[in-house]
Amino acid sequence: MRSDRGQTLPIYIWMTGILLFVAFAFFAFAQAASARNGAQSAADAAALAAAQDARGELVDGLAESIGEGDDWLDWLDGNKFTDEGARGAADALAADNDSTVMDLGPDEVNGYPGFWVQIETNYTVGDSILPGTESKHAKAEATAIIKPRCDVTPGVDPEKAVEFDCDGSVSFEIDPDDFDLDDLPDASVLFSVHLAD
Questions:
Q1: What Rg, from alpha-carbon coordinates, does the chain have?
Q2: Rounded distance, CA 72 to CA 42, Å?
Q3: What pLDDT is attached to residue 44?
Q4: How many CB atoms lie within 10 A of CB 63?
Q5: CB 26 within 8 A of CB 174
Q6: What is the rounded end-to-end Cα distance, in angstroms, of the chain?
Q7: Bridge-partner residues for 117, per DSSP?
Q8: What does the DSSP assignment read for 137-165?
Q9: Tell me, what's the pLDDT at 83?
Q10: Rounded CA gap, 34 and 88, in Å?
Q11: Residue 27: in which H helix or E strand, if any?
């Protein structure tokens, strides 16, 4: 009887050690998954911020160009923005998510312009039984695009009143000869901004 107890104790200790190791390993993988999720959220937010900044630039450019020439309708294509303010907007949103933008650039998905962003978290995965995690930063990337939401009848005269039909059954008219900033709808009516699939 005592012999059986003596043989059981090492097996019990061995099994307990294995279970503890497995539990710590699962915890380490959960830490890594949490860091990856945080990094992806930061990348998504940064890409959307860059695209939203560009959308604002498009609306401002459209407003300034109406009545100045015959190319104001070109602003509605969604590709006349620069990336001047996009980096600052992306940096700010990444920082809000405790991350840093490592790279940012213009991109195009299915013919729609946008921005690609790569970020790295400022925090690490954390201490775990897996070596190196205490200094490992999570990285992620995302692309956000700007999609025009309004259609114009081809061949319209931009020097005369133009009627627009937009997604969501929204319609409005712009007359270059009698234009007021209040005539422009909200930027979200003219362009949608969303993450690329």
A1: 27
A2: 35
A3: 94
A4: 17
A5: no
A6: 66
A7: 104, 142
A8: EEEEEEEEEEEE-EE--TT--TTS-EEEE
A9: 78
A10: 26
A11: helix 2-65
* Domain range annotation of the chain: 2-195
The 3-state DSSP class for residue 130 equals coil
Q: What pLDDT is attached to residue 1? A: 47
Query: Which residue shows structure tokens 């009698």?
Result: 178
Q: Could you identify the residue written with the tokens 């980096």?
A: 87
Q: Which two tokens stand for residue 52?
A: 């939203």
Q: Other CB atoms closer than 10 Å to residue 100's CB: what's the count?
A: 16
pLDDT of residue 133: 53
Joined tokens for residue 137: 């930063």
**d(Cα 138, Cα 141) in Å, to the nearest integer?**
11
Q: Residue ranges of the chain with pLDDT lower than 50?
A: 1, 129
Q: Token pair of 170, please? A: 């929204």
Under a CB-based contact definition with an 8 Å cutoff, are residues 128 and 24 in contact?
yes
The Cα 145–Cα 118 span in angstroms is: 15
| Amino acid 65: pLDDT | 85
> Can you tell me which residue has the tokens 């993988």?
29
pTM for the predicted model, two decimal places: 0.77
Helix (H/G/I), strand (E/B), else coil: 107 = strand
**pLDDT at residue 163, as a whole number:** 84
